[in-house]
Amino acid sequence: MNIEFGRMVMLVRDYDEALDFYKTNFNAKILFDENSSFGLRFLHVGIGNGEAGIWFLKADGKQQEQLVGSQTHQQPAMVLYTDDIDTMYERLLANNVRIEIAPVDSPQYSFLHCYDLYGNEIVIVQLKQ
């Protein structure tokens, strides 16, 4: 039996602003984008070469709106890997992305923490060989 990771669901306030943020900062690409006949938009984006990614889901109603940016209750929402954390850090700074933890270096890895446009915490890691 083969099992693969598909998508994580992330509540957003606006599909296009979320897409723009992730494209600009993390090279996200659209994997699937369709408007259903019953009024829902299905926008799935990928980061990297695989088909795994994020399914943006527009918050519906006051309760969901309050969860935008805090679905994980102040814990990181995701971990992304890079092969060049210094360039990634410079890109985030140039785009005024809020940094929680500037790059930290260890013998096995480097990492930083930042926030997306809604306040979801993202950990970015560069593994060392």
What can you tell me about this protein's structure?
This protein has helices at 15-26, 62-67, 85-94; strands at residues 7-12, 29-35, 41-46, 53-58, 78-81, 99-105, 109-115, 121-127. With 129 residues, it is α/β, with parallel strands linked by helices. It has one domain (7-127): Roll (2,3-Dihydroxybiphenyl 1,2-Dioxygenase, domain 1), CATH 3.10.180. The protein has a four-stranded mixed beta sheet with strand order 1-4-3-2. A hairpin with a 5-residue loop joins strand 7 (109-115) and strand 8 (121-127). The longest helix is centred in the first third of the chain and has 12 residues, at 15-26. It is globular, with a radius of gyration of 15 Å. The chain starts with 6 loop residues before the first strand and ends with a strand.
